[in-house]
Structures are given as structure tokens and as C-alpha cells.
Amino acid sequence: MHQPGPPPAPTAPAAKPLRADAARNRAKLLAAATELFGERGLDAPLEEIARRAGVSIGTLYNHFPSREAFWEAIFPARLAALEQITEKALAAPDAWDGFVAYLEGLFALQAEDQGLNDAVAQRFRAAGEVEQACNRGFRLAEQLIQRARDSGQLRPDFEPADLVTLSWAMSQVIRESMETAPDAWRRCLAFFLDGLRTGAAHPIEVPPLPQGQLGEVTRSR
Question: pTM of the full predicted structure?
Fold first, then answer.
């Protein structure tokens, strides 16, 4: 889960259409990368992507000169699905139900895709369209938090920064349990949610992380 960054840079001119064989190779590489990132996360070996696609590593680098270029091609659409979940949650008649549905939808997406789990947890620095999509998602999540607090159901001291740290924690649960207990995160989330209800709240002496510290933690990760 990302906090908003600086405004996006101007859009680059459209690239020339690829030859038919080059377009096929690019499509095969994207399919292989989507599959492998989903299985192993964003640090999956590029050599394995090339092997699955049936092309040389040189062909891979011709189309995607860096690992980040793969993310730029794959994850905006994935993150758009999260935006839809957030917008639906904002439209829920009950603010608490919407907040819960958002968290459940967010973590279910992460549990289905290790690469998306890494992206949401900021295990790798986002840029370009991926960063823009994360920023849009974070702004929508801020609205969701405010709505749930205003309803009196979400504890009033829960801040957007706390959603970031909650996402980090849940992403680790998902990452470590995905293969052996893929639904373990749901039990963990249920405990978190009970602690976020206004009726269960107790004063917390430690404040939420300010933006500067969140940035330092992100860079260190």
C-alpha cells in the first residue's frame, strides 16, 4: 500500500507498432512473467521468464530492458481491480461493512498473486503507471477510512498510515503461508478487525508513523 507520490511525468510519445514475430514474443514474455511473478513474487528470475516464454534472454531484454519494465506492463491492470473493490466498498450502505469488504478484497487479491502482494507491500519501489495506480488507490482508501471513522464504527485514531503498516503485516502472513495454508490470512484479519472496532478501542501511546518515517521504512525495504 503506497502513500501518494509526486505528480506523474509527461507521457512519452507512442511507440511504433511491433512486427508480428516481435509482438508474439512480447505477448509470450508477458504471459510467462505474469505467471511467474504470481507464483514467486517480483524477484522471480528473468532467465526463468525467458525459458517459459521459449525465447532467449537477449530477446527478453530487447522487449523489457529492466525488471521494472515488466511491472509497468503487468500491474496497472491488476491494481485497477483493486480500485474497483475500493469504489464498491465506498458505495456500500454501511460504512463498516464497506471497510471490511475493502480489506477482505485487498488481501484476497494479494493471496491470489504473489507479485501483487509484493507490489502492495512495497517490497520493490514502484514508478510510472504502477506508482500512479497505487497513489489513486491510496487516495480512495483514505476516503474509505474517513467514512468508517465518521460512522463511529472504526476507532477514531486509525490513520491511513496505519493501513500501510497493516498491509505490510498482512502481506508477510500471506507470503509465508500461501503454499501451505492459503486462507490463514483470513483468521489473522479477523483478529485485526475486532481490534479496529470503536467499542474495543483502548488508547495507544505510540503514534502512527508520519510520512517521513514511512518513506524511510519503504526505502530500507
Answer: 0.76
